[in-house]
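Why does residue order matter? Because the sequence determines the fold. Keep that principle in mind as you read this record.
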Amino acid sequence: MFRQITGIQEDILGAIQGLPSFYFEGGWADDISLECYRLPDGTEEILRITKEKERCRIGFQEKIHLFRALGILRENAGKTEFDSDEKMYISRIGVMIDASRNSVPDAAFLCSVLDRMALMGLNCLILYMEDVYELEGEPRFGYMRGGYTQETLRQLDDYGDQYGIRIIASIQVLGHLEKVLRYPEYASLQDSSSCLLADNEKTYELIGKMLRTMGQCFRSRLVIVGMDETHGLGQGRYRQQHGACRPLDIFLDHLQRVHALAQENGVEIALYSDMLLSYSSPKHAYLDPGGEIDPQICARIPKDAGLIYWDYYSRDPALLDGMMKRHRDMGNPIYAGPLLSVSSFCVNYPHTFQTAEHALMAVKKYRISMAYGCLWHDDGAECCDWLGLLGMQYYAESAYRETPVSQEALSVRFAACTGLCAGWFTDAALLDAVPCSNPENRWPPNPSKYLLWQDPLEGIYDEDLRGLGLDLHYEKTAELLEADAEKAGEEGWFLQVPLLLAKVLHLKAALGERLHLHYKVGDRAALQEDEERFEVLLQQVNELRLAHRQQWMQTCSPFGWSRLDLRYGGLIARVETARYRLGQYLDGSLSGLPELEVPRYERDRCGQFLGKGIWKVYGESVTLSDG
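Structure:
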């Protein structure tokens, strides 16, 4: 703790004193007298630090800038004297955490994330909540999903406010509501299984209640209302009631109604722009930087509504620049970029950095005032949000620097703001960042997902993996992660699942290919070894499951783990059955194994690379999926 702190209010003082223990580790701050003061209005710099021996002065504009300055101070703890000042090039910078795709992050865990975000200088946390929040008179909202109570949301908002971090609600008011629309109470509100019925008064009563609740729970007046990916809008019950109508007209009329409800409840809205641009594009394409939107359409978009350009995969600087300019020209732009955890066990950092660097430079070029990285968890939420910390730091550094962020500077800042090593996170990313990824593919493959879950006897990706040597890749990855976990000690709790998964994949990645080949050539000795590998694999998968369960219960609501239990249970049962079937064949009880006689075909192969067009989801490997 600092020897003395002056110039700040009691609430800020309490927040400094409550920083995580790693921040003060080693006693570096014990002799420092800290004097804080507000910078004058109109000052270009948002923070100034001057340290002379044991005396340090920090000038700041907003609370979050003070906490970022404290992170910088820790980074320079070994210096007797130094001066530093910073400007901010993206005024609202943050991260979005997905609380709707099977996992709902525990409130205490989110507070730990907020502690690190504060030292990074991130000033907004977007919570994506489709139906996982308490809504008065709507008991099915968050039902059996681990939804947040309104009191929990208010407490989270209070916790973020001590640092100057705004919690921003991201909800849905049109599509992506299949989890609640599946219940009979909402049958009359369905256009389709996932989309609300527009031009229906009961629909707008529900949306009004949503917006009112968000306004009552959070200090932020901004509510992200989604409206993305509403494919097939107006083609269900709406068409039955109103006949055929242009989806664009339905969308814009609905937007006007939502905007009016937002004004009634004292909040502002932002929506994703993908459907708006797709509906109005002659090519029916979202990513069409050369396209021009009809001025008559622009006139129907509320002037104060934010338009969110989401793009997690594009790496072409010209495309990103063109799309960013197009959104700037349309009105109030916001950029939502990648922290690529979608449908995976890890964050794919190489792809994240390649995409985000060009995009964030364009954000600064066009002076777009808000940007955030998205930790999506489609199809099960196997990835722990803690693995996103390094990406959060990247977004923070990009907001406070005019030039691109170097990996060296990122690593140094990250250690100061989290007490963790950046290399641990990039090593975990090797679960998906395999050397055989297709460099031309816009979407990165996620082999860690389908290699784990695919059936050991009916492997539909066996032919894709032929000759790629991914077992050797995962062997090296496991060695790296084992060394990382040993060095990290208790702070490396989040490395256990990636480590154990790498060990499983070292054994399983080539097992299907090997088994199929050994059966084809009739090598019974090799098949005997394969049977023994199945026995080891059973033990390793169960060890992974137990570690994953412990991590989940530490970071998330227990609801949702049931789905992963079923996945692990199914995998364990299938591995055991594979061992049993192979044993029967080897002892002569079976004359053949039909599962291994079926030819294998490619699904995700492009020459010598993985990745043709889209990421793979669990439903393509087996049948159980809800995400």
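DSSP finds 24 helices and 15 strands in the chain.
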